[in-house]
UniProtKB/TrEMBL annotation:
Pfam family, one: Phosphatase-like_N
InterPro entries, A to Z: Phosphatase-like_N (IPR048716), Ptyr_pPase (IPR023485), Ptyr_pPase_sf (IPR036196)
Top class in the EC scheme: oxidoreductase
NCBIfam families the UniProt entry points to: MSMEG_6209_Nter
Identification of the protein by name: Arsenate reductase ArsC
UniProt domain Phosphotyrosine protein phosphatase I: residue ranges: 84-209
Species annotation: Lentzea sokolovensis
Entry annotated with the keyword Magnesium: no
UniProt EC number: 1.20.4.4
Keywords for the protein's UniProt record, in alphabetical order: Arsenical resistance, Oxidoreductase
SMART domains according to UniProt: LMWPc
Length: 213
């Protein structure tokens, strides 16, 4: 993939090397530097495919690579697992799955690990979604659409789909749920509030089940 957009090539290369160095230190004893470097490069290209603004791609690459390596370590049994992990999937990872992930993180207080992804991630999170969550004191300051990758599914204990069809890979031993929730894309703030509250009811029920287990 061409990397001519955004930062000059030499600056981008330097930033990706720095990310590799930092994550190699963080995951020392779990993954080799070669593995980390491969995931960094792959992650940058995954995010760049649908990015409309490339300025912040290195920052997002660092965040997403860290998450992917964490999930890979969890899925492969290389790291200690202490809490259940839930993955929310919708088409663009800009609406329903972001709302669900934010609400579960808000209610779980660290007792559940939360992920979200899109089968075809694109665009940005609508302001109505951000505003509706802000009304509950939830800030989406670091949220961004992310692609669905194999390791995030393998690492999940519960996979919740919301309108993404059959694009999610199925692994045995996992719990799969499909929530019939309206899409907030292009909706008014009042409608997004109703969708938020609908998702919140689902979230509270799921959280109750998870903490009982």
């Amino acid at each position: 993939m061409s990397r001519t957009r955004g930062l000059p090539q030499h600056e981008l290369t330097a930033q990706l090397l720095r990310i590799t160095d930092e994550l190699s230190d963080r995951f020392h004893g779990v993954f080799s530097r070669e593995t980390v470097a491969k995931v960094v490069d792959e992650t940058y290209d995954l995010l760049a495919e649908n990015a409309t603004i490339t300025t912040y791609l290195p920052v997002l690459t660092a965040r997403f690579t860290k998450q992917r390596l964490t999930d890979q370590g969890r899925a492969d049994g290389l790291t200690t697992v202490t809490v259940p992990q839930v993955l929310f999937i919708c088409v663009h990872n800009a609406g329903r799955s972001q709302i669900a992930a934010a609400l579960l993180e808000h209610h779980a207080f660290g007792k559940v690990s939360v992920r979200s992804a899109g089968s075809r991630p694109t665009g940005t999170i609508p302001q109505t979604v951000t505003d509706a969550l802000a009304e509950l004191g939830i800030e989406l300051t670091e949220a961004y659409p992310k692609p669905l990758t194999d390791e995030v599914v393998r690492a999940a204990d519960v996979v919740v789909t919301m309108g993404c069809g059959d694009t999610c890979p199925v692994y045995p031993g996992k719990r799969y749920l499909d929530w019939d929730v309206a899409d907030p894309a292009g909706a008014s703030l009042d409608t997004v509030r109703a969708i938020r509250d609908d998702i919140d009811r689902h979230i509270r029920g799921l959280l109750s089940e998870l903490l009982q287990d």
